[in-house]
Amino acid sequence: MGDSADKPAHGPHDVPPWVLRAYAVLADGERGAVVDPEGRIVWLCAPRWHSDAVFSALIGGGGYFGVEPADRWHVSGGYYEDGTLIRVSRWVTADAVIECRDALAMPACVDRPVLLRRMRVEEGEARLRMTLDPRPGFGAGGMRGLRLDGDVWTGYADGLRLRLRGARGAACEAGSVLRGDFRLRKGEQHDLVLELSEKESTARLDADRLWARTEEAWRRAVPDCSGLAAPRDARHAYAVLRGLTSSSGGMVAAVTTSLPERANTGRSYDYRYAWLRDQSYAGLAVAAHGPHDLLDTAVRFTAERMLADGDGLHPAYTVDGGPVPEERGLPLPGYPGGQDRIGNRAADQFQLDAFGEALQLFAAAAHHDRLTPEAEQAVTVAVRAVERNWRRPDAGLWELDERWWTQSRLSVVCGLRRVAAVLPGRTGQRCADLAEAVFAETRRRCLRADGRWRRAADDDGPEAALLTPLARGFPPADDPSNAITRRFIEEQLADDGYLYRFVHQGIPLGEAEGAFLLCGFTMALATDHLGDRAGALRWFERTRAACGPSGLFAEEYDVRQRQLRGNLPQAFVHALLLECAVRLNDAATLPL
Fold first, then answer.
1. How far is residue 371's CA from residue 95's CA, in Å, rounded to a whole number?
2. Which of 57, 554, 573 shows the shortest CA–CA distance to 261?
3. Who has the most CB within 10 Å: 78, 121, 229, 272?
4. Cβ–Cβ contacts within 10 Å for residue 38, how many?
5. Could you tell me if 410 and 466 are in contact, meaning their C-beta atoms sit under 8 angstroms apart?
6. Residue whose C-alpha is closest to residue 474's, from 534, 522, 425, 513
């Protein structure tokens, strides 16, 4: 993506794009919204993650919900309230200081998102402008029948019903857009409550009550992280993971679709689905801290999918366990440099490492005495699937062409050994025997004579994915291949303290793609596993600096331009930040 100023000039569109680091995200587990620095909600799918967008201005589809100062001469900022995804946008004009507090109401209803916006003037007097322009179907349609009933606006479109409270003085334009101004003096506040529902709703749109319930839900959801490295960032990471996790247990990889990893290369994907690998990473990070609720939800969702699909396990599902739709394009301009797409073709791949990560997750649950009977059955199903399929080529962690990827086999061995340690008897022995068989063949095919692990059986190149099993404690720290492989990866794939995935033939690292933030955090864990705490902390601190002002991480980081790349917030990056924060202190130890 090319260079871009932090604050864009207004162009021909109502909602100009910003660099990705400038955006913030709201989420309640069932859906997510993206907020730009001017106070516009430019992305929201309703009623669920994989539904069509109602606000899609982020990717050129039109539709947004704006609350912003009428005075164009202002600077913007903002912050998240600690341990929540309640976002406070803050604007300073020539005459006033204004805050707008935003949240998706919790506890969430699956079929009924409720968006809360509370405006307050901290200093001076201000005029705020509201624009509500819902366009369901990724901008294809508009709301119809907008009318004011008492103090609540109502409307409908494409199976959705809208109710907005707090904008009695707004005017309806073109039959589908509401606009209104609010004048507030110091200390005054004004609430807007927007509900989008699949059914006729009579729920109370009481702002005070909804805010109180939302605040309490966040207090209950996010545990104390004061004893960890970077405690505030750890709590924020936990809040992100909670916000991305549905009541059905599935955790989306990211809130958005089609934010490009590299400009005009076709690398734009839909991440509004639950990848079992990512879900396992999140569960393992939470398990490292303690037996919190997100561990249980990860185990439940993963076990359900394993029991339902066995050998035919898909890498990704909708958050309610359904199939991911086929990838298709949208007739929209897209975020600059990107191509709009929904659906994801990776969901039909065979990815062996997903079984290994799931087994590690189940073992972590057993360590905390949280392995349910269903999850124990899922262990048996996963072991059988590995027995039948571990010799097959697979698409691997990066979802590339099917090959005999080393990391996939090492992750499986790690998972089998973890299970063998916590489930004695026939199941444990079976896992131990299978682990030895897989490891012996993987060593034969993928370990070079000089002690370095190959990227794949037919590829000697450097591969940051090999750090993943090492970060989990396998092979053991005294195995000489660990230090040799880690050093080679650092020599070949590191730049300015950030780490890339692998070498793209003939293209310099920073030109092929951004640094991969998951890899930086796994490098920190792997380095610590080898006994270098100072080196691990350097990797941790450098990688956690690669976020925007909102503290959100995308998948990639453009080292030269210091910009985020790809969809956000990327769940597995936040998961690994949390795990690093747990492990990189003197009391931390690797799990069984």
1. 58
2. 554
3. 272
4. 23
5. yes
6. 522
Q: Taking the mean position of all CA atoms in its chain, how far away is CA 312?
A: 25
Interval 487-545: pLDDT, tens: 999 999 999 999 999 999 989 999 999 999 999 999 999 999 999 999 999 999 999 99
**Percentage above 90 pLDDT, the chain:** 90
Q: Which two tokens stand for residue 111?
A: 């079929």
Tokens 């690669």 -> residue: 546
**Which of 344, 316, 319, 341 has its CA nearest to residue 331?**
341
Q: In this structure, are residues 278 and 571 in contact, taking their beta carbons and an 8 Å threshold?
A: yes
Cα 81 to chain centroid, rounded: 19
Contact 96, 126 (CB under 8 A): yes
- How far is the C-alpha of 18 from the C-alpha of 74, rounded, in Å? 16
Asked if 188 and 198 touch (Cβ cutoff 8 Å), the reply is no
Residue with tokens 């819902």: 134
Q: What is the residue whose two structure tokens read 């097959």?
A: 392
What is the Cα–Cα distance from 536 to 520, expressed in whole angstroms? 10
Cα–Cα dist 183/189, whole Å = 10
pTM: 0.95
Per-residue DSSP letter, 158: T
Whole-angstrom Cα distance, residue 464 to residue 501? 5
CB-based burial of residue 496 (10 Å sphere; 0-12 exposed, 13-18 middle, 19+ buried)? exposed
Q: Nearest CA to 313 among 381, 390, 403, 402?
A: 381
Tens digits of per-residue pLDDT, 113-146? 999 999 999 999 999 999 999 999 999 888 899 9
Which SS3 state, helix, strand or coil, does residue 172 take?
strand
Exposed, middle or buried: residue 449 (CB in 10 Å: 0-12, 13-18, 19+)?
Answer: exposed
Alpha-carbon distance of 113 to 466, in angstroms, equals 41
How distant is the alpha carbon of residue 290 from its chain centre?
Answer: 21
Instruction: Give the CB-side neighbour count of residue 537, counting CA atoms within 13 A.
Output: 9
Q: Which two tokens stand for residue 214?
A: 């939302």
* Cα angle for residues 312, 316, 319 (degrees, 5° grid): 120
Per the CB < 8 A criterion, the answer to whether 162 and 169 are in contact is no
Contact 557, 31 (CB under 8 A): no
Q: How far apart are CA 529 and CA 493, in angstroms?
A: 19
Between CA 116 and CA 138 the distance in angstroms is: 22
